[in-house]
């Protein structure tokens, strides 16, 4: 059964974020293909699947979001399947009528927001607009807001201030991500460590009082073990051309690296192909996805299998390979950043276990 289905509605985007590795295109999913996917894949959904709407900027195809939900909810009335919905957006097109729609359907809303660096890294003038939007969201209690803030070596010094700003606005889930397409000098890594530690210290009361820590990077991870990417196992992604992949990240990866071997190894074919196979994806393609394991990855310096951090580390194979085009190759910056995040997270929980004097 599918626990998740991602719908990449369009390759188009109305912004040109400085660090975004995605290749923009002009393709938008056809309504007929969307209808076919909703009808054909619905029987394979789990009882509470997560339906993710992605882009590009998915709100450029809001009519398809509305259409998909109409299709899915019509079918859910006659079954025990209750879909959950998620939308990732830059927020620029979130008009009141769209917010009301998301509120009515209880969307999880992931907003891209870089704090003080927003105008420089994403779009000039967007900081004020996104700040106003964050202040309006409490009026829509059905929306579950979250933010994703991306930092690079030039902007990582604003990390602590960005997190504090979002905590003040009671954003319940704050994700910090990093630009892995550029080198990270030691000075930038030191600023990352300092900023993350300052943010963690300010959040200790959440952990000590049993509340959810808003910074997702600090939340307790699963028990130590070898990370295995879930792509292609219990989730699928539909691209704007009507093809199925194991995860929307592989849609982005193929757009950036449109090689025949990527299509052959990781694309499950069309929705019709999936149905003809009885909902059983090609085992050869599933085997290709099974290679997304931390212990099978490597940097240009050494394999990850022998690393002392192996059982605490994780990576997204297509995201890590966006620059190099080599799946399984982990940027050195990812290793150094991961060690800092793991170190600060473990320090945070050690400190949280000690009552404040």
Features:
alpha/beta, 357 residues, 9 strands, single chain, TIM Barrel
How do the helices and strands line up, and which of them pair or pack?
Blueprint (H helix, E strand, L loop, with lengths): L1 E7 L22 H11 L3 E10 L7 H15 L7 E6 L6 H9 L3 E5 L5 H4 L4 H11 L7 E8 L7 H10 L4 E6 L7 H17 L1 H5 L26 E4 L4 E3 L2 H9 L3 H7 E4 H6 L6 H7 L27 H4 L11 H21 L5
Parallel strand pairs: 1-2, 1-7, 2-3, 3-4, 4-5, 5-6
Antiparallel strand pairs: 7-8, 8-9
Give the low-pLDDT segments: none
Q: What is the percentage of strand-forming residues?
A: 5-15%
User: In which range does the helix fraction lie?
Assistant: 25-40%
Strand order of the largest sheet: 6-5-4-3-2-1-7-8-9
CATH homology superfamily of the domain at 2-218: Aldolase class I
Task: Give me the oligomer status.
Answer: single chain
CATH architecture of the domain at 2-218: Alpha-Beta Barrel
Strand count: 9
Specify the structural class.
Answer: alpha/beta
Using only C-alpha atoms, the radius of gyration works out to 20 Å
The geometry reads as globular
Number of helices in the DSSP assignment: 14
Largest sheet: 9 strands, mixed
């Amino acid at each position: 059964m599918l626990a998740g289905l991602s719908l990449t509605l369009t390759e188009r985007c109305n912004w040109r974020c400085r660090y975004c590795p995605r290749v923009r295109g002009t393709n938008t999913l056809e309504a007929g293909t969307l209808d076919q996917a909703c009808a054909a894949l619905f029987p394979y959904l789990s009882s509470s699947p997560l339906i993710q709407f992605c882009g590009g900027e998915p709100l450029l195809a809001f009519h398809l979001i509305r259409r998909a939900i109409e299709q899915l909810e019509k079918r859910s009335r006659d079954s025990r399947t209750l879909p959950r919905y998620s939308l990732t957006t830059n927020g620029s097109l979130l008009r009141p009528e769209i917010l009301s729609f998301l509120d009515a359907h209880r969307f999880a809303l992931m907003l891209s927001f870089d704090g003080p660096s927003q105008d420089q890294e994403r779009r000039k003038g967007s900081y004020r607009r996104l700040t106003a939007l964050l202040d309006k969201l409490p009026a829509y209690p059905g929306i579950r807001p979250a933010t994703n803030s991306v930092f690079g070596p030039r902007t990582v010094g604003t990390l602590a201030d960005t997190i504090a700003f979002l905590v003040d606005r009671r954003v319940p889930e704050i994700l910090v991500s990093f630009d892995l397409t550029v080198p990270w000098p030691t000075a930038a890594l030191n600023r990352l460590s300092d900023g993350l530690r300052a943010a963690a210290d300010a959040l200790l009361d959440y952990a000590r009082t049993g509340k959810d820590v808003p910074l997702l990077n600090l939340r307790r991870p699963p028990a130590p073990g070898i990370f295995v990417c879930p792509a292609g196992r219990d989730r699928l992604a539909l691209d704007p051309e009507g093809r199925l992949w194991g995860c929307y990240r592989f849609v982005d990866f193929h757009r950036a690296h449109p090689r025949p071997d990527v299509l052959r190894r990781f694309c499950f074919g069309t929705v019709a192909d999936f149905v003809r196979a009885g909902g059983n994806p090609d085992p050869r393609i599933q085997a290709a996805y099974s290679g997304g394991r931390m212990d099978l990855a490597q940097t240009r310096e050494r394999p990850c299998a022998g690393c002392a951090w192996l059982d605490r580390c994780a990576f997204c194979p297509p995201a890590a390979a966006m620059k190099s085009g080599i799946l399984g190759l982990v940027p050195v910056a990812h290793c150094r950043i991961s060690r800092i995040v793991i170190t600060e997270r473990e320090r945070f929980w050690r400190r949280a276990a000690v009552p404040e004097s």
